[in-house]
Specification:
About 70% of the residues lie in helices and about 0% in strands. By secondary structure, it is mainly α. It has one domain. Helix 3 runs antiparallel to helix 4.
Length: about 130
């Protein structure tokens, strides 16, 4: 993709909006992980609820933050895409499309970021 100021601003907006909104889902999971209540989390891929919760937190907090600042952006987008596809097609497979819509939109955002890269306004480009 040819780099232009408009394209780079568009990628910055996509990174900030997608990652910022993803963090609103990940940070509560992080707080729950270290809370006093026992973890009640799904086990969509059969590795246990604790490891599943940890992997989701890794994607939705750590990787989303890396995408937000544009550091190791393409690599960081991959776990988020996997997380969202598992959520849409495994964890919520029996739910109507409206319940899976957010997961699919997030997957599309992070696939786009993976394909296009972080843009000029990122730490990857510094």
């Amino acid at each position: 993709m040819k780099s232009s100021p408009k394209n780079d601003l568009g990628l910055l907006l996509l990174r900030i909006a997608g990652s910022g909104l993803m963090l609103t889902h990940g940070v509560p999971k992080l707080m729950n992980y270290f809370g006093e209540e026992p973890i009640q989390f799904g086990n969509p891929i059969g590795i246990g609820s604790g490891p599943s919760h940890f992997l989701v937190m890794f994607a939705e907090v750590f990787c989303a933050f890396l995408v937000l600042i544009g550091l190791k952006t393409r690599w960081a987008a991959i776990p988020v895409v996997i997380d969202m596809l598992v959520a849409a097609f495994i964890a919520h497979a029996a739910d109507p499309i409206g319940a899976r819509e957010k997961s699919l939109l997030f997957a599309a955002i992070f696939i786009s970021i993976f394909l296009m890269g972080p843009g000029r306004y990122s730490l990857d480009r510094k």
